[in-house]
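Quick check before the chapter quiz. The format below is the same one you will see on the exam, so make sure you can read both the input and the output lines.
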Amino acid sequence: MKKNVFLRGLTIFLCSMGTVFTVGIVFLLLTDFTAISTFGTVLGLVKTQSLYSIKSGDMITGAGAGIVSALRDPYSQYLDPSTWQDLKEKIDAKFNGIGVYLIQDESGRLIILSPIEGTPAYKAGLKNDDIIITINGESTASMTQDKAVSLMKGEPGTELDLVIYRESEKKQIDFKIIRESINVPSVHSQAVKDHPEAGYVRLNQFSTHSDQELADSINRILADKKVKGLILDLRNNGGGDFEVAISISSLFLDNKDVVSVADADGNKSVRKSTSGGLSLPLVVLINKNSASASEILAGALHDNNRAVLVGEKTYGKGVVQTVFPLPDGGALKLTTQKYFTPKGTDINKIGIQPDDPVENDAASDQDKQLDRAVQVLDQQLKNGQ
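Here is the expected output.
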């Protein structure tokens, strides 16, 4: 009896799936017969006429990747199993590599962001804004960010060959760097020289545990009773986990709107902070490489009049990606929503302007932006804010 019930259920399921598949094909044929016909012709010619053989599974995977590429969205991508694993490692902040973050600008250039202190990249002398020309002899022209990250990772003890272009020196530089196993800290804090009332904390990325790391770091800072205000450094933070950005906002905002998101159908929802946010004066440092989750946090703090933004205009990534695991072990990273700051501002391809614009000189070691942030915080403390 149980066997018959199972078989009946399986039959109904397969029939349902077949119906859905058939309806989908009919819909495509009715709406774009020429395109479907062309697709079928290409498949047939590749299988029967090509000098090179290809597995049917690889053709389907390639077709799927091509569909995503046709969106012309730099943030949507088919991730093969290896690349998907790399992304999960980045979110968990543990990987084998040299210790840098990358960002891809609108022209497709792959640019290094803030080599992590103590890592092989940092020791070798790679710098923020170095443009990657080749990776192990392979040109980065037309290379995706995810592929570059995959190529740069590898087993500890293996060598990575990089050629970069350094704009400040107007020259290419070759690097040979030995990979290591790296546990990436999300947060770095330090004392501010000659300003005992100012606490400083830098958030490098929004990884799985960044909210707890930041909370712990701030608690340690505030254990020094002299500290009366904070500087939060989001410079060169390319973003990360959307939910972690919402969680971190609750460290500073008490039951306030953080961000609103809208999907392709115009459905909107608002995400709010929880209660219990710190009330001490706050200054946030931003620059052109502050992107995505960094902009969500900076925009929320700014629009709620919770912090003064110091530095440069941010990157301008105002869209959210959702990752959908696929049966082959890979995943589809797809832009599914656009987000807006609490005041309804669309910052995509625009960025967030600082309240107090300051630029650093690439040829100088002086951090003018941090100096200005300290001045702004000092003024807030004097005014009793």
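If your answer matched, good. The chain has ten helices and 19 strands.
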